[in-house]
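Quick question: what would this complex look like in 3D?
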Amino acid sequence: MRTVHVSTGKPYDIYIERGLLDKTGEYVKSLSRAERAVLVTDTNVAPLYKWKVLNSLSAAGIEVTTHVFQAGEASKHLGTVSDMYKTLADAHITRKDLIVALGGGVCGDMAGFAAATYLRGIDFIQLPTSLLAQVDSSVGGKTGVDLPQGKNLVGAFHQPIAVLIDPDTLNTLPDRFITDGMGEVIKYGCIKDARFFEFLENENALDHIEDVIETCVSIKRDVVSRDEREKGERMLLNFGHTLGHAIEKLYNFSGISHGMAVAIGMVMLAKAGEKHGITAQGSADRIAALCEKYSLPTTESFTFAELAQAARSDKKSAGDSINLVLLREIGDSFTQKIELDKLEEFIAAE
Ligand code: MG
């Protein structure tokens, strides 16, 4: 068992162990006084793991109501959360009860948002089943939904009472979802940990998945604990994301995964950093090679003008400027404010 302690305003632990889903009930019992729980999961995950979790909770004496929503980012809107509120109300969930979020990032974000807002906030526990959710979205307390105008525009910071990561769930994950998560895994090496980056270059990450998850979660924990509400250091976690989001937007959020778009964004920014003399020469090539090793794309055919235009609508842009995450070298990152009007020129610099 590996445990990563997160000391945010409301501290909690992240547990990493194979077979952990079978112990969900024990953990809930030890961390909460809940008598009832709503188990939120999606149509992909429900047939695989719903019963495992449900049986474990029931064995611990918790009355469980299951709420299954249609899998996919397209479900991540207020209508789906509204359906969750109905299930919570019908199940007579009180302030001492909880929500169990079993699934990938979309499930965690929405179930977490329902927990943040129902009765002005109830407990929830995260059981992330995708690599992306295990290394990234289940840690940090960000919850929310998309609006037609953009991703994650409505949300709340709400920390779970615990995160239970069962790496066995990755065995049933289609390859493209492993690839998706690897985009974020590589990001952690780029922004904070040159040795971890080298480890990913020299080893097969999937052969050491528990180490990989623990390292990523620890890096995110360190950053988030120092900056719970995203005022400064937490922005570093957005390395590759400004252009990544722009690419996702240009694809209308279909046909390219988040991790793939972030991979392209990281390589482009490293290249731009090198051209400006900010980033150590050769960094972009190493990042590109590592992304390719894990089947991630590294280039895109959109013009710099198209990318800069799409980035303008990114919610992370504060007014006329944007906080760009840049590397001094692999493992050492910083943010630099840049005027939106200068973004195209910056990424296109020869
Ligand atoms: Mg991300």
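Answer marked as accepted. The radius of gyration is 20 Å.
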